[in-house]
């Protein structure tokens, strides 16, 4: 009996099957990660959320910014190598936007939630050095557990916003960014309640939508504009026909032409990823798993918190874009949590999407 259990555990690990009580179906749609980052410095549930920066001058020099929510904000190359660590506290979620005017220059703003002091941390990314630098003092939120965070650049007004939440209560705030004498300042412009705990969010700059993952409930679509209030539309629900299981976590948007594209959701309770159409009523497309590669050198993923995705070509390894996910159980070998990179083209092929 012991031998059979050991054999089963080995087969599951090699297959990259989720290492939870949820069994991957025999007909599951699967893809493999092609790059992984080093383990984060902190042990336990520490890695959390990534954000992708595309280098406009040379896509091969693009970056992934990832959080170690017990220690720091980390910057990685497309090869997964660690390039910078900012030990600024318990940084939980991160997002970025290009083109913010600061001191008369267009800069890339990186915003992160800091649970050490329940604040918004603001940075500027230098494209020449590929390094982050502080853009001003932390912005206190008054929230009790500043966890989830995403950014929004309104095409209607040109304004930039940070959206942050108290994940335990599902309380959201929206802050408008401004140039405050060469540093970035922030003003609270909106508050709304989701109803239950929520962390993952993503804003669609072109369509003006804000997606919020209510962990035990539903994926919701709100207006991302500060006057949007609390009106919302349900996209999908835990326990529904599409296989969502508590908790729902990270959300990201793959931008296609003409308002088309995809919304990607970490279906953490089932250790897989749900994909929806970006346009219209966000029609459900399908679910995929990330499994180990044939050589077992990069393991599969499970219990994923944060995700990010880009549709921009990042060289021959990522010709149709890149998906980055946090891996809640980093094995082969067993180590602290890390982030895995998946070619979007592989996802297109697996799901039968155009371009695949």
Can you walk through the features of this model?
Strand 18 and strand 19 form a beta hairpin. The strands form 6 sheets. Strands 1-23-22-21-20 form a 5-stranded mixed sheet, with helices on one face. The chain has 2 helices and 26 strands. The longest helix has 14 residues, at about 1-15. It has about 350 residues and is mainly β. The chain has a single domain, classed as TolB, C-terminal domain (Neuraminidase).
**Unreliable spans:** 1-22
Total beta-strand segments: 26
What integer value in Å does the Rg equal?
19 Å
Give helix and strand order, one letter per element, not per position. HEEEEEEEEEEEEEEEEEEEEEEEEEEH
Gross geometry:
globular
Main pleated sheet: 5 strands, mixed
Strand order of the largest sheet: 1-23-22-21-20
Q: Do you know the CATH architecture? A: 6 Propeller
Which topology does CATH recognise?
Neuraminidase
Considering the chains and any ligands shown, give keywords for the structure:
356 residues, mainly beta, Neuraminidase, five-stranded antiparallel sheet, 2 helices
Brief summary of the model shown:
The protein is mainly beta. It has 2 helices and 26 strands.
List the topology elements:
Blueprint: H1 2-15, E1 30-32, E2 35-36, E3 47-53, E4 63-68, E5 72-77, E6 82-86, E7 91-102, E8 105-114, E9 119-126, E10 131-134, E11 139-140, E12 146-153, E13 160-166, E14 171-180, E15 183-193, E16 198-204, E17 209-214, E18 218-223, E19 232-237, E20 248-255, E21 261-267, E22 272-277, E23 284-291, E24 307-310, E25 322-327, E26 338-343, H2 344-351
Parallel strand pairs: 1-23
Antiparallel strand pairs: 2-26, 3-4, 4-5, 5-6, 7-8, 8-9, 9-10, 9-11, 12-13, 13-14, 14-15, 16-17, 17-18, 18-19, 20-21, 21-22, 22-23, 24-25, 25-26
């Amino acid at each position: 009996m012991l031998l059979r259990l050991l054999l089963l555990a080995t087969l599951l690990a090699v297959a990259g099957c989720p290492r939870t009580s949820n069994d991957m179906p025999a007909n599951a749609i699967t893809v493999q990660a092609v790059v992984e980052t080093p383990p984060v410095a902190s042990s336990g549930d520490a890695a959390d959320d990534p954000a992708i920066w595309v280098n406009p001058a040379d896509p091969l020099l693009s970056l992934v910014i990832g959080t170690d929510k017990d220690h720091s904000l980390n910057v990685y190359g497309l090869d997964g190598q660690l390039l910078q660590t900012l030990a600024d506290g318990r940084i939980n979620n991160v997002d970025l936007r290009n083109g913010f005017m600061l001191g008369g220059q267009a800069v890339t703003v990186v915003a992160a939630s800091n649970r050490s002091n329940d604040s918004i941390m603001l940075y500027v990314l230098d494209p020449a050095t590929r390094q982050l630098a502080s853009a001003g003092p932390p912005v206190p939120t008054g929230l009790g557990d500043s966890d989830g965070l995403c950014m929004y650049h309104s095409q209607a007004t040109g304004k930039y916003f940070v959206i942050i939440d108290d994940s335990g209560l599902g309380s959201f705030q929206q802050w408008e960014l401004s140039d405050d004498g060469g540093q970035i300042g922030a003003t609270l412009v909106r508050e709304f309640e989701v109803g239950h705990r929520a962390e993952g969010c993503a804003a669609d700059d072109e369509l003006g939508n804000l997606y919020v993952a209510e962990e035990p409930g539903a994926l919701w679509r709100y207006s991302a504009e500060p006057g949007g209030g609390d009106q919302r539309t349900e996209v999908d629900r835990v326990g529904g026909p599409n296989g969502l299981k508590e908790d729902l976590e990270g959300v990201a948007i793959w931008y296609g032409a003409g308002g088309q594209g995809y919304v990607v959701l970490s279906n953490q309770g089932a250790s897989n990823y749900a994909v929806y159409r970006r346009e219209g009523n966000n029609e459900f497309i399908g679910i995929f798993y990330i499994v180990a590669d044939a050589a077992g050198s990069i393991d599969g993923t499970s219990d994923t918190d944060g995700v990010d995705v880009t549709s921009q070509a990042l060289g021959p390894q990522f010709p149709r874009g890149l998906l980055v996910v946090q891996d809640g159980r980093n094995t082969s070998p067993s180590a602290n949590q890390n982030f895995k990179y998946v070619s979007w083209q592989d996802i297109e092929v697996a799901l039968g999407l155009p371009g695949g």
